[in-house]
Write a structure and sequence with these properties.
The protein has two domains: 4-144, 3-Layer(aba) Sandwich (Rossmann fold), CATH 3.40.50.2300; 170-348, Hypothetical protein af1432 (Orthogonal Bundle), CATH 1.10.3210.10. 56% of the residues lie in helices and 9% in strands. The protein has helices at 13-22, 41-50, 68-79, 100-105, 119-170, 178-193, 198-208, 220-223, 231-248, 254-265, 286-300, 312-321, 329-337, 339-348; strands spanning 4-9, 27-28, 31-38, 54-60, 86-91, 110-113. A six-stranded mixed beta sheet has the order 2-3-1-4-5-6, sandwiched between helices. Helix 2 runs parallel beside helix 3 (68-79), helix 7 (198-208) packs across helix 10 and helix 10 (254-265) crosses helix 11 (286-300). The protein is elongated. 30% of the residues are buried. The protein binds ligand C2E, succinic acid (2 copies) and fe (iii) ion (FE). Fe (iii) ion is lined by residues 211-212, 240, 266-267.
Amino acid sequence: MSKWKILIVEDDMDMHEVTKLTLKRFDYLGKKLEFISAFSAKEANEVLLVETDIAVVLLDVVMESDHAGLSVVKFIREELGNHNIQIILRTGQPGQAPEGDVIRRYEINDYQEKSELTNQKLKTSVITALRTYNTLIKVQEQKNELSKLNRELEESQEEVFYILGEIAESRTPTSGNHVKRVSEIVEFLAIKAGGVHDEDIKHIKRASMLHDIGKLAIPELVLNKPGKLDTGEFDVMKTHSDAGYKMLRNSSKDQLRIASIIAREHHENYDGSGYPDGLKGEEITLISRIVSIADVFDALGTKRVYKEAWDYKDIVAYMKEQTGTKFDPGLMKIFSDSIDDIIGICKRYPD
Ligand code: C2E
Ligand code: SIN
Ligand code: SIN
Ligand code: FE
Protein backbone atom coordinates (compact mmCIF):
# COMPACT_ATOMS: atom_id res chain seq x y z
CA MET A 1 0.00 0.00 0.00
CA SER A 2 1.49 3.30 -1.01
CA LYS A 3 1.83 6.27 1.31
CA TRP A 4 1.51 10.04 0.90
CA LYS A 5 5.02 11.42 0.61
CA ILE A 6 5.67 14.49 2.73
CA LEU A 7 8.92 16.39 2.22
CA ILE A 8 10.08 18.33 5.27
CA VAL A 9 12.59 21.05 4.40
CA GLU A 10 14.09 22.64 7.51
CA ASP A 11 17.55 23.56 8.72
CA ASP A 12 16.36 23.09 12.31
CA MET A 13 16.69 19.42 13.40
CA ASP A 14 14.11 19.77 16.13
CA MET A 15 11.41 20.90 13.70
CA HIS A 16 11.82 17.64 11.76
CA GLU A 17 11.26 15.62 14.91
CA VAL A 18 8.32 17.71 16.15
CA THR A 19 6.62 17.57 12.78
CA LYS A 20 6.97 13.81 12.42
CA LEU A 21 5.78 13.28 15.98
CA THR A 22 2.72 15.45 15.40
CA LEU A 23 1.74 13.63 12.23
CA LYS A 24 2.77 10.15 13.35
CA ARG A 25 -0.67 8.58 13.55
CA PHE A 26 -2.09 10.56 10.71
CA ASP A 27 -3.80 8.93 7.77
CA TYR A 28 -5.88 10.24 4.89
CA LEU A 29 -8.11 8.10 2.65
CA GLY A 30 -6.64 5.04 4.35
CA LYS A 31 -3.06 5.91 3.43
CA LYS A 32 -0.36 6.79 5.93
CA LEU A 33 2.38 9.39 5.55
CA GLU A 34 5.96 8.78 4.53
CA PHE A 35 8.42 11.49 5.60
CA ILE A 36 11.45 12.59 3.62
CA SER A 37 13.83 15.07 5.24
CA ALA A 38 15.96 17.76 3.64
CA PHE A 39 18.03 20.28 5.59
CA SER A 40 18.67 22.93 2.94
CA ALA A 41 17.19 24.22 -0.30
CA LYS A 42 19.94 22.48 -2.23
CA GLU A 43 19.17 19.15 -0.61
CA ALA A 44 15.45 19.65 -1.13
CA ASN A 45 15.95 20.19 -4.87
CA GLU A 46 18.03 17.03 -5.13
CA VAL A 47 15.27 15.04 -3.44
CA LEU A 48 12.61 16.61 -5.65
CA LEU A 49 14.45 15.53 -8.77
CA VAL A 50 14.33 11.90 -7.72
CA GLU A 51 11.04 11.65 -5.84
CA THR A 52 8.44 12.60 -8.43
CA ASP A 53 5.38 11.74 -6.36
CA ILE A 54 5.77 13.99 -3.36
CA ALA A 55 2.36 15.26 -2.28
CA VAL A 56 3.21 18.00 0.18
CA VAL A 57 6.27 20.07 0.99
CA LEU A 58 6.54 21.65 4.44
CA LEU A 59 9.02 24.35 3.61
CA ASP A 60 11.10 26.60 5.85
CA VAL A 61 11.63 30.07 4.40
CA VAL A 62 15.04 31.04 5.84
CA MET A 63 17.75 28.38 5.60
CA GLU A 64 21.16 28.76 3.94
CA SER A 65 19.94 32.15 2.74
CA ASP A 66 17.04 34.46 3.59
CA HIS A 67 15.14 33.34 0.54
CA ALA A 68 16.28 29.73 0.28
CA GLY A 69 12.68 28.51 0.71
CA LEU A 70 11.44 30.64 -2.11
CA SER A 71 14.12 29.23 -4.40
CA VAL A 72 12.73 25.75 -3.73
CA VAL A 73 9.27 26.99 -4.65
CA LYS A 74 10.63 28.38 -7.92
CA PHE A 75 12.43 25.13 -8.61
CA ILE A 76 9.24 23.11 -8.14
CA ARG A 77 6.92 25.31 -10.16
CA GLU A 78 9.21 26.66 -12.84
CA GLU A 79 12.01 24.17 -13.40
CA LEU A 80 10.16 20.97 -12.63
CA GLY A 81 6.89 22.43 -13.93
CA ASN A 82 5.17 20.57 -11.12
CA HIS A 83 1.87 22.21 -10.20
CA ASN A 84 0.51 19.30 -8.21
CA ILE A 85 2.78 19.37 -5.17
CA GLN A 86 1.18 21.32 -2.35
CA ILE A 87 3.54 23.80 -0.75
CA ILE A 88 3.10 24.89 2.85
CA LEU A 89 5.59 27.60 3.82
CA ARG A 90 6.67 27.74 7.43
CA THR A 91 8.16 31.00 8.59
CA GLY A 92 10.16 31.52 11.77
CA GLN A 93 8.94 35.05 12.38
CA PRO A 94 5.91 37.08 11.32
CA GLY A 95 7.96 39.41 9.06
CA GLN A 96 9.14 36.55 6.87
CA ALA A 97 5.80 35.70 5.34
CA PRO A 98 5.90 36.30 1.58
CA GLU A 99 3.78 38.97 0.02
CA GLY A 100 0.39 38.08 -1.44
CA ASP A 101 1.61 38.38 -5.03
CA VAL A 102 4.50 36.01 -4.31
CA ILE A 103 2.02 33.51 -2.89
CA ARG A 104 -0.09 33.69 -6.03
CA ARG A 105 2.74 33.80 -8.52
CA TYR A 106 4.45 30.72 -7.13
CA GLU A 107 1.27 28.89 -6.23
CA ILE A 108 2.13 28.63 -2.55
CA ASN A 109 -0.82 26.83 -1.07
CA ASP A 110 -0.57 27.80 2.58
CA TYR A 111 1.78 29.37 5.05
CA GLN A 112 2.14 29.28 8.79
CA GLU A 113 4.20 30.90 11.45
CA LYS A 114 6.06 28.29 13.42
CA SER A 115 5.27 29.98 16.75
CA GLU A 116 1.56 29.49 16.08
CA LEU A 117 1.90 25.98 14.86
CA THR A 118 -0.36 23.93 17.08
CA ASN A 119 -0.75 20.25 16.37
CA GLN A 120 -4.29 20.68 15.17
CA LYS A 121 -3.40 23.47 12.79
CA LEU A 122 -0.64 21.44 11.18
CA LYS A 123 -2.94 18.45 10.74
CA THR A 124 -5.65 20.60 9.19
CA SER A 125 -3.18 22.13 6.76
CA VAL A 126 -1.88 18.72 5.74
CA ILE A 127 -5.40 17.33 5.22
CA THR A 128 -6.34 20.29 3.04
CA ALA A 129 -3.13 19.91 1.07
CA LEU A 130 -3.61 16.18 0.53
CA ARG A 131 -7.22 16.68 -0.55
CA THR A 132 -6.12 19.19 -3.18
CA TYR A 133 -3.17 17.08 -4.27
CA ASN A 134 -5.38 14.02 -4.64
CA THR A 135 -7.88 15.94 -6.78
CA LEU A 136 -5.14 17.32 -9.03
CA ILE A 137 -3.65 13.87 -9.50
CA LYS A 138 -7.04 12.39 -10.37
CA VAL A 139 -7.68 15.12 -12.92
CA GLN A 140 -4.28 14.54 -14.45
CA GLU A 141 -4.87 10.79 -14.67
CA GLN A 142 -8.15 11.44 -16.45
CA LYS A 143 -6.44 13.80 -18.88
CA ASN A 144 -3.82 11.16 -19.62
CA GLU A 145 -6.53 8.57 -20.18
CA LEU A 146 -8.37 10.91 -22.53
CA SER A 147 -5.35 11.74 -24.62
CA LYS A 148 -4.48 8.06 -24.87
CA LEU A 149 -8.04 7.32 -25.99
CA ASN A 150 -7.82 10.18 -28.44
CA ARG A 151 -4.62 8.79 -29.92
CA GLU A 152 -6.18 5.35 -30.26
CA LEU A 153 -9.24 6.80 -31.98
CA GLU A 154 -7.04 8.74 -34.39
CA GLU A 155 -5.09 5.62 -35.18
CA SER A 156 -8.12 3.43 -35.71
CA GLN A 157 -9.69 6.12 -37.86
CA GLU A 158 -6.64 6.12 -40.11
CA GLU A 159 -6.81 2.33 -40.17
CA VAL A 160 -10.48 2.34 -41.20
CA PHE A 161 -9.86 4.86 -43.99
CA TYR A 162 -7.03 2.72 -45.20
CA ILE A 163 -9.02 -0.51 -45.16
CA LEU A 164 -11.97 1.10 -46.95
CA GLY A 165 -9.65 2.50 -49.57
CA GLU A 166 -8.06 -0.89 -50.12
CA ILE A 167 -11.40 -2.69 -50.37
CA ALA A 168 -12.58 -0.21 -52.96
CA GLU A 169 -9.40 -0.56 -54.97
CA SER A 170 -10.21 -4.04 -56.16
CA ARG A 171 -12.75 -5.72 -53.87
CA THR A 172 -10.53 -8.78 -53.89
CA PRO A 173 -8.20 -9.63 -51.05
CA THR A 174 -4.96 -7.85 -51.86
CA SER A 175 -1.66 -7.27 -50.19
CA GLY A 176 -1.17 -4.21 -52.37
CA ASN A 177 -0.06 -0.94 -50.85
CA HIS A 178 -1.37 1.42 -53.57
CA VAL A 179 -3.62 3.31 -51.16
CA LYS A 180 -0.86 3.68 -48.59
CA ARG A 181 1.68 4.91 -51.15
CA VAL A 182 -0.75 7.39 -52.69
CA SER A 183 -1.61 8.83 -49.27
CA GLU A 184 2.07 9.12 -48.32
CA ILE A 185 2.95 10.83 -51.60
CA VAL A 186 -0.05 13.16 -51.22
CA GLU A 187 1.06 14.11 -47.71
CA PHE A 188 4.61 14.71 -48.95
CA LEU A 189 3.52 16.90 -51.89
CA ALA A 190 0.94 18.82 -49.82
CA ILE A 191 3.63 19.76 -47.32
CA LYS A 192 6.03 20.80 -50.11
CA ALA A 193 3.33 22.78 -51.91
CA GLY A 194 2.81 24.77 -48.70
CA GLY A 195 -0.12 26.85 -47.53
CA VAL A 196 -1.89 23.95 -45.86
CA HIS A 197 -2.18 23.79 -42.05
CA ASP A 198 -0.64 20.81 -40.24
CA GLU A 199 -4.03 19.68 -39.02
CA ASP A 200 -5.39 19.81 -42.59
CA ILE A 201 -2.43 17.78 -43.88
CA LYS A 202 -3.51 14.96 -41.61
CA HIS A 203 -7.07 15.19 -42.96
CA ILE A 204 -5.89 15.38 -46.56
CA LYS A 205 -3.66 12.37 -46.11
CA ARG A 206 -6.54 10.30 -44.79
CA ALA A 207 -9.05 11.69 -47.26
CA SER A 208 -6.80 10.74 -50.17
CA MET A 209 -7.04 7.08 -49.13
CA LEU A 210 -10.67 7.17 -50.24
CA HIS A 211 -10.10 8.63 -53.70
CA ASP A 212 -11.34 5.45 -55.41
CA ILE A 213 -14.09 4.58 -52.90
CA GLY A 214 -16.57 4.89 -55.79
CA LYS A 215 -15.09 1.73 -57.34
CA LEU A 216 -17.32 -0.09 -54.84
CA ALA A 217 -20.16 0.80 -57.19
CA ILE A 218 -18.46 -0.65 -60.30
CA PRO A 219 -19.52 -4.13 -61.48
CA GLU A 220 -17.01 -6.87 -60.91
CA LEU A 221 -16.72 -7.73 -64.60
CA VAL A 222 -15.56 -4.23 -65.45
CA LEU A 223 -13.47 -3.57 -62.36
CA ASN A 224 -11.43 -6.73 -62.59
CA LYS A 225 -11.48 -7.25 -66.36
CA PRO A 226 -8.09 -8.75 -67.22
CA GLY A 227 -7.61 -6.65 -70.32
CA LYS A 228 -8.38 -3.39 -72.02
CA LEU A 229 -11.82 -1.88 -71.34
CA ASP A 230 -13.97 -1.07 -74.37
CA THR A 231 -15.53 2.39 -74.62
CA GLY A 232 -18.77 1.35 -72.95
CA GLU A 233 -16.93 -0.33 -70.10
CA PHE A 234 -14.68 2.67 -69.60
CA ASP A 235 -17.79 4.89 -69.43
CA VAL A 236 -19.02 2.68 -66.61
CA MET A 237 -15.59 2.85 -64.98
CA LYS A 238 -15.61 6.65 -65.10
CA THR A 239 -18.74 6.77 -62.95
CA HIS A 240 -16.57 5.81 -59.94
CA SER A 241 -15.68 9.50 -59.47
CA ASP A 242 -19.23 10.71 -59.04
CA ALA A 243 -20.24 7.56 -57.14
CA GLY A 244 -17.50 8.19 -54.57
CA TYR A 245 -18.49 11.83 -54.27
CA LYS A 246 -22.09 10.87 -53.55
CA MET A 247 -21.07 8.32 -50.93
CA LEU A 248 -19.20 10.96 -48.93
CA ARG A 249 -20.68 14.36 -49.70
CA ASN A 250 -23.34 14.47 -46.98
CA SER A 251 -20.90 14.09 -44.16
CA SER A 252 -20.47 16.98 -41.77
CA LYS A 253 -16.92 15.91 -41.06
CA ASP A 254 -14.18 17.96 -42.70
CA GLN A 255 -12.04 15.04 -43.73
CA LEU A 256 -14.93 13.20 -45.37
CA ARG A 257 -15.98 16.34 -47.21
CA ILE A 258 -12.42 16.74 -48.48
CA ALA A 259 -12.54 13.05 -49.42
CA SER A 260 -15.75 13.60 -51.40
CA ILE A 261 -14.11 16.41 -53.39
CA ILE A 262 -11.05 14.28 -54.06
CA ALA A 263 -13.22 11.35 -55.16
CA ARG A 264 -15.02 13.59 -57.63
CA GLU A 265 -12.03 15.47 -59.01
CA HIS A 266 -9.08 13.08 -59.03
CA HIS A 267 -9.46 12.28 -62.75
CA GLU A 268 -9.89 15.89 -63.84
CA ASN A 269 -7.07 17.13 -66.09
CA TYR A 270 -5.31 20.48 -65.91
CA ASP A 271 -6.31 21.34 -69.50
CA GLY A 272 -9.98 20.49 -68.95
CA SER A 273 -9.89 17.14 -70.78
CA GLY A 274 -10.62 15.00 -67.69
CA TYR A 275 -13.80 13.64 -66.13
CA PRO A 276 -16.48 13.91 -64.81
CA ASP A 277 -16.83 17.69 -65.15
CA GLY A 278 -13.98 18.77 -67.45
CA LEU A 279 -12.73 21.22 -64.82
CA LYS A 280 -9.66 23.27 -65.77
CA GLY A 281 -6.56 24.51 -63.91
CA GLU A 282 -7.38 26.01 -60.54
CA GLU A 283 -11.04 25.10 -60.87
CA ILE A 284 -9.73 21.74 -59.71
CA THR A 285 -9.09 21.82 -55.97
CA LEU A 286 -5.37 21.90 -55.17
CA ILE A 287 -5.56 18.69 -53.21
CA SER A 288 -7.26 16.87 -56.11
CA ARG A 289 -4.50 18.03 -58.46
CA ILE A 290 -2.00 16.57 -56.00
CA VAL A 291 -3.90 13.26 -55.71
CA SER A 292 -4.05 12.99 -59.51
CA ILE A 293 -0.24 13.12 -59.73
CA ALA A 294 0.24 10.63 -56.91
CA ASP A 295 -2.44 8.26 -58.23
CA VAL A 296 -1.16 8.08 -61.79
CA PHE A 297 2.47 7.86 -60.69
CA ASP A 298 1.71 4.91 -58.47
CA ALA A 299 -0.81 3.22 -60.81
CA LEU A 300 1.79 3.20 -63.60
CA GLY A 301 4.40 1.70 -61.30
CA THR A 302 2.07 -1.09 -60.19
CA LYS A 303 0.96 -4.25 -61.95
CA ARG A 304 -2.79 -4.29 -62.58
CA VAL A 305 -5.08 -7.00 -64.00
CA TYR A 306 -4.95 -5.00 -67.24
CA LYS A 307 -1.31 -3.89 -67.37
CA GLU A 308 2.25 -4.56 -66.27
CA ALA A 309 4.21 -2.25 -63.97
CA TRP A 310 6.22 0.44 -65.75
CA ASP A 311 9.85 1.43 -65.02
CA TYR A 312 10.30 4.66 -63.10
CA LYS A 313 12.20 6.08 -66.07
CA ASP A 314 9.20 5.56 -68.37
CA ILE A 315 6.75 6.86 -65.77
CA VAL A 316 8.68 10.07 -65.28
CA ALA A 317 9.01 10.57 -69.04
CA TYR A 318 5.26 10.04 -69.52
CA MET A 319 4.38 12.41 -66.70
CA LYS A 320 6.72 15.12 -68.01
CA GLU A 321 5.01 14.82 -71.36
CA GLN A 322 1.61 15.21 -69.64
CA THR A 323 2.62 18.32 -67.73
CA GLY A 324 0.29 21.22 -68.49
CA THR A 325 -2.18 18.91 -70.21
CA LYS A 326 -2.99 16.31 -67.54
CA PHE A 327 -0.98 17.67 -64.60
CA ASP A 328 -0.51 21.04 -62.87
CA PRO A 329 2.90 22.41 -64.00
CA GLY A 330 3.65 24.06 -60.64
CA LEU A 331 3.01 20.83 -58.76
CA MET A 332 4.94 18.84 -61.35
CA LYS A 333 7.99 21.04 -60.71
CA ILE A 334 7.80 20.13 -57.02
CA PHE A 335 7.21 16.50 -57.97
CA SER A 336 10.19 16.34 -60.35
CA ASP A 337 12.50 18.07 -57.88
CA SER A 338 11.58 15.45 -55.26
CA ILE A 339 11.40 12.38 -57.44
CA ASP A 340 14.03 10.52 -55.41
CA ASP A 341 12.10 11.08 -52.18
CA ILE A 342 8.90 9.93 -53.86
CA ILE A 343 10.49 6.77 -55.22
CA GLY A 344 11.82 6.27 -51.69
CA ILE A 345 8.27 6.39 -50.31
CA CYS A 346 7.17 3.77 -52.85
CA LYS A 347 10.04 1.47 -51.92
CA ARG A 348 9.07 1.71 -48.25
CA TYR A 349 5.63 0.27 -49.05
CA PRO A 350 6.16 -2.43 -51.68
CA ASP A 351 3.34 -4.70 -52.85
P1 C2E B 1 -6.08 2.87 -61.80
O1 C2E B 1 -5.64 1.55 -62.30
O2 C2E B 1 -5.88 3.17 -60.36
O3 C2E B 1 -5.38 3.99 -62.66
C1 C2E B 1 -5.44 5.35 -62.29
C2 C2E B 1 -4.98 6.21 -63.42
O4 C2E B 1 -3.61 5.93 -63.72
C3 C2E B 1 -5.70 6.01 -64.73
O5 C2E B 1 -6.91 6.73 -64.75
C4 C2E B 1 -4.70 6.57 -65.73
O6 C2E B 1 -4.71 7.97 -65.70
C5 C2E B 1 -3.39 6.11 -65.14
N1 C2E B 1 -3.02 4.82 -65.74
C6 C2E B 1 -3.11 3.59 -65.19
N2 C2E B 1 -2.66 2.66 -66.04
C7 C2E B 1 -2.27 3.30 -67.17
C8 C2E B 1 -1.70 2.88 -68.41
O7 C2E B 1 -1.45 1.69 -68.64
N3 C2E B 1 -1.43 3.84 -69.33
C9 C2E B 1 -1.67 5.15 -69.09
N4 C2E B 1 -1.38 6.06 -70.03
N5 C2E B 1 -2.23 5.59 -67.93
C10 C2E B 1 -2.52 4.67 -66.98
P2 C2E B 1 -8.06 6.30 -65.76
O8 C2E B 1 -7.48 5.99 -67.09
O9 C2E B 1 -9.11 7.33 -65.69
O10 C2E B 1 -8.59 4.94 -65.20
C11 C2E B 1 -9.33 4.91 -63.99
C12 C2E B 1 -9.47 3.50 -63.53
O11 C2E B 1 -10.16 2.72 -64.53
C13 C2E B 1 -8.14 2.78 -63.32
O12 C2E B 1 -7.64 3.08 -62.06
C14 C2E B 1 -8.57 1.32 -63.48
O13 C2E B 1 -9.20 0.85 -62.32
C15 C2E B 1 -9.62 1.39 -64.54
N6 C2E B 1 -9.05 1.11 -65.88
C16 C2E B 1 -8.55 2.00 -66.76
N7 C2E B 1 -8.17 1.37 -67.90
C17 C2E B 1 -8.43 0.05 -67.72
C18 C2E B 1 -8.27 -1.12 -68.55
O14 C2E B 1 -7.82 -1.06 -69.71
N8 C2E B 1 -8.66 -2.31 -68.04
C19 C2E B 1 -9.19 -2.40 -66.80
N9 C2E B 1 -9.56 -3.61 -66.33
N10 C2E B 1 -9.37 -1.32 -65.98
C20 C2E B 1 -8.99 -0.11 -66.46
C1 SIN C 1 10.83 34.47 1.37
O1 SIN C 1 11.67 34.95 2.12
O2 SIN C 1 10.88 33.30 1.00
C2 SIN C 1 9.70 35.34 0.85
C3 SIN C 1 10.26 36.30 -0.13
C4 SIN C 1 9.40 37.47 -0.40
O3 SIN C 1 8.41 37.73 0.26
O4 SIN C 1 9.76 38.23 -1.34
C1 SIN D 1 -8.10 21.81 -46.59
O1 SIN D 1 -7.05 22.36 -46.30
O2 SIN D 1 -8.94 21.50 -45.73
C2 SIN D 1 -8.40 21.52 -48.05
C3 SIN D 1 -7.39 22.25 -48.87
C4 SIN D 1 -7.52 21.96 -50.32
O3 SIN D 1 -8.35 21.13 -50.70
O4 SIN D 1 -6.77 22.54 -51.08
FE1 FE E 1 -9.74 6.70 -59.68
